Structures are given as C-alpha cells and as structure tokens.
Amino acid sequence: MTIAIFGGTFDPWTSAHQQILQMLSEKYQRVIVIPTAIRYYKAGNQMFSFEERMRSAREHSRIFANVRAIDIEKNVDENWRFVHTLQAVRGMYGTDNEYYVAIGSDALQKFTSWFEWQKILENASLVVFNRPGFTKDFPDISFEYLPMENPASSTEVRNLLRLAKM
Question: What pLDDT score was predicted for residue 130?
Fold first, then answer.
C-alpha cells in the first residue's frame, strides 16, 4: 500500500491544504494528516490550539474515503521530532508499505536541519509542493515535485486575521 503522510501546523487550514489533500488522495492509497503539536520553526506564532487544528483537519479529511487525520502528536514532549512520528505511523500501518512525506518547498529548504533527516529518507520518499517565495531546487535530496495552482499560506492568513482584529 502507498501511504502519504501530510503533517503541518495547519494554523489555520487553507484552500492550499485542501488542494494538497485532494492531490494526495488521488495519488496514494491512504493519506494520513497529522497536525503538529510542537512548532519548531513557528514558535510563538500560534493562532489556534492543537484541538482546534485537529478538529479542522478531521473535518476537511472526511471528504475523502482514503484520508484520515490522527492526533498522534497530541501529547508528545519537546524531544519529539518528525522521525518519531514517521516511526509511529510505520508501527501503526506496517513497515512493508511505501511511505511518502508531503512537505512544502519552504520545508524542503530546511529539511537537512531536521533531526535524523537521513533516517526519514531511509523510511520514506519526499513529495514537495510549491510555496510562495521558495524554490523547488535542492540538488542533494531526491524528491518528487508536485506543482500547485493555489499556494495559499497559513502565515498570510494569520497575518490578515490579526490585522482584521486590530
């Protein structure tokens, strides 16, 4: 079975997330959506709680028969990293499946700084979606590039929401 893992802050969920979900659900047999509990690159910039983001991910995932949102990171400690999430998912769904990790081109630029990134690549392949202002070029890492028509940004949405509240 082919399984795509789509993790992220989803703060808030955007039309781009929905487009990615659509693309992944058509390409892979199963898609696992995992809201992150710990924001390594976006600390202090949270707008919605984990529970709110989880609820939104579940609501948007229900549209697709092969997509499931799980709260595997709900109670993790500060030492938890994505490699641990991948290991946990492989433990849940089996090690003999083909795993794919869906990330944005912004995350690709930081990927070699992820904890045990080589181990991630030993256990899964990368699928990269374009993000505004970030290149898809990264010559040292193998990945599949899937362009999007709607590269909306949660950061931009959060900024607009904050401005509207002022």
Answer: 83
**Residue 43's pLDDT is what?**
56
CB environment 131-164: b (16+ within 10 A), e (fewer) = beebeeebeeeebeeeeeeebbebbebbeeeeee
Q: To the nearest whole number, what is the mean pLDDT of the chain?
A: 86
Rounded distance between C-alpha atoms, residue 137 and residue 65, angstroms: 33
Query: What residue type is 147 in one-letter code?
Result: P
Q: Which residue has the higher pLDDT, 132 or 144?
A: 144
> Is the pLDDT at 38 greater than 50, yes or no?
yes
**What is each CA distance from 31 to 7, 23, 41, 45, in whole angstroms?**
10, 10, 24, 27
Query: Do residues 124 and 108 touch, judged by C-beta distance below 8 A?
Result: no
Half-sphere exposure of 91 (CA within 13 A, CB side): 7
Which run of H or E residues covers position 117?
A: helix 117-123
Is-contact 138 161, C-beta < 8 A? no
* Residue of 107, 95, 92 lying closest to 155 (CA atoms): 107
